[in-house]
């Protein structure tokens, strides 16, 4: 079941600052690209402190984005061994200037003992103890280095084939066995079951198609076509399952209905970030998180948690809130995950307001992206879930934030002392003016009395996303957000463009200068 891909390799031996004391680099690109790769690798060495001939860098891919910037992705080998978690990306501008180096692990491999206590055959025997299905054929084991944590570990990656516990689904179980102690460190399934398409009867979005997963005896609410995110019933602590792949009944009398809305919301949010911004999952590297519904008893809130990388939704008390699984809330909560993996805006003061504003902005844009007639796009937050007995009410209003009774329309030095859900009003008001303009429907009064003509929600969304992922930092305040969005507009549309000038005008219209 293992796939082997054939590629012609060109080897480039690089001479860095330490002369011969430099790693070898292997590239799948043509020889005439060697200069670019040499530049990228030298930068990688400088930034990662790599100066040992025992390390080898292997170029996995080279991607050039719409701005002409090049992103070179490397894998690492040490003393000939594949290094799990040793991968990183070097980002360089169109002109060849270093932009950044992206990596998760900076574990030093220097001096690591790569002599195992036992051989691969013994590793297979140890791995077989955790194989729950039916084994077929011999296993295999490769000696590797697990460098995902601060302390790298020599391990065997054993691969066992057979069938999963249902007796029908093939299995290619990967088991990571410590090559010194024999302890099983981790296991994962290499066979990814085919995606199914289910029908969901939601509370807010009508009847929708859902990405689901075929399992023995039916289906589970797991979208294997979108990073395998799944939806859990918090009350039972189990992933929703169903026999016929038809979920919910469009009412709260079926526990699966809230699961439908949450799952659909995560599905649409995933597609929005992928198709509009080219983002690979919520964390940017394929990670998508998961959803939990029916949290607590009559719980009037929903929240994102970084530790589980997941969204959690309450059912509401039926008076102040109905189940908090509407489309814009799903987009809002998942966007907290995007922020946590990019700017990491601290959740207090003005940076906290920007954090909340970012989620409101993308929650609205997700709603527009869905183009669902049952919940059409708007710049209201939570209009489907808040005070069900009061028509037209919403939790927050981006065109005039003060309508909620606590959010300011205009910036002042006291904004940082407000709750983050209120101080978000400045960013929300700015974005509405940038996207829709002051004379849109509904109209949006400006703080300086000057009219603003919007550039459209799509361009405004691209500017905010680039500012978030490229220029915002954890402590960004509104003045710095103005600079960041101006830089993003300049990158995307030019310093003399209408888009750049409108960003400037929209910030001035909310008193941020």
TrEMBL record:
Annotated localization: Secreted
A single cellular component GO annotation: extracellular region
Domain Peptidase M4 intervals: 197-340
CDD domains in the cross-refs: M4_TLP (cd09597)
GO molecular-function terms, A-Z: metal ion binding; metalloendopeptidase activity
PANTHER family associated with the record: BACILLOLYSIN
Protein name per its UniProtKB record: Neutral metalloproteinase
Organism, scientific name: Stigmatella aurantiaca (strain DW4/3-1)
């Amino acid at each position: 079941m293992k796939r082997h891909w054939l590629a012609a390799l060109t080897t480039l031996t690089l001479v860095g600052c330490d002369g011969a004391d430099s790693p070898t680099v292997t590239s799948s690109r043509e020889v005439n690209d060697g200069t670019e790769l040499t530049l990228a690798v030298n930068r990688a060495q400088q930034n990662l402190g790599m100066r040992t001939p025992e390390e080898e860098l292997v170029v996995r891919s080279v991607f050039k984005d719409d701005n002409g910037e090049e992103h070179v992705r490397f894998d690492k080998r040490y003393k000939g061994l594949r290094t799990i978690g040793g991968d990183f990306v070097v980002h360089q501008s169109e002109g060849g200037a270093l932009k950044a180096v992206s990596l998760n692990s900076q574990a030093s491999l220097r001096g690591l003992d790569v002599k195992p206590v036992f051989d691969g055959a013994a590793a297979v025997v140890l791995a077989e103890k955790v194989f729950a299905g039916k084994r077929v054929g011999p296993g295999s084991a490769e000696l590797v280095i697990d460098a995902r944590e601060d302390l790298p570990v020599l391990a065997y990656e054993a691969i066992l084939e057979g069938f999963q516990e249902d007796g029908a689904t093939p299995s290619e179980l990967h088991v990571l066995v410590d090559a010194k102690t024999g302890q099983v460190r981790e296991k994962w399934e290499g066979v990814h079951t085919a995606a199914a398409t289910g029908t969901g009867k939601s509370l807010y979005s009508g009847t929708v198609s859902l990405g689901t997963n075929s399992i023995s005896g039916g289906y589970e609410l797991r979208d294997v076509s979108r990073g395998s995110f799944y939806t859990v019933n918090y009350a039972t602590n189990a992933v929703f399952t169903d026999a016929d792949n038809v979920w919910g009944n469009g009412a709260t009398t079926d526990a699966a209905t809230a699961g439908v809305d949450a799952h659909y919301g995560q599905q649409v949010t995933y597609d929005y970030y992928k198709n509009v911004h080219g983002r690979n999952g919520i964390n940017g590297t394929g990670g998508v998180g998961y959803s939990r519904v029916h949290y607590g008893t009559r719980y009037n809130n929903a929240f994102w948690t970084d530790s589980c990388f997941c969204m959690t939704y309450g059912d509401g008390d039926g008076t102040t809130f109905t189940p908090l699984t509407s489309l814009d809330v799903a987009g809002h909560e998942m966007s907290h995950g995007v922020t946590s993996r990019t700017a990491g805006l601290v959740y207090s003061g003005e940076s906290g307001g920007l954090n909340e504003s970012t989620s409101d902005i993308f929650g609205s844009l997700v709603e527009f992206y869905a183009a669902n007639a049952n919940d059409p796009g708007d710049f209201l937050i939570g209009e489907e879930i808040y005070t069900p007995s009061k028509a037209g009410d919403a939790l927050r209003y981006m065109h005039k934030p003060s309508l909620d009774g606590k959010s300011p329309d205009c910036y002042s030095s006291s904004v940082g002392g407000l709750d983050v859900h209120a101080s978000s009003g400045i960013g929300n008001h700015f974005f509405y003016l940038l996207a829709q303009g002051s004379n849109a429907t509904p109209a949006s009064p400006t703080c300086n009395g000057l009219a603003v003509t919007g550039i459209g929600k799509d361009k405004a969304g691209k500017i905010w996303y680039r500012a978030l992922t490229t220029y915002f930092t954890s402590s960004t305040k509104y003045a710095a957000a103005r600079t960041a969005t101006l830089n993003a507009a300049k990158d995307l549309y030019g310093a003399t463009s209408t888009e750049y000038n409108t960003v400037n005008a929209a910030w001035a219209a909310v008193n941020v200068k």
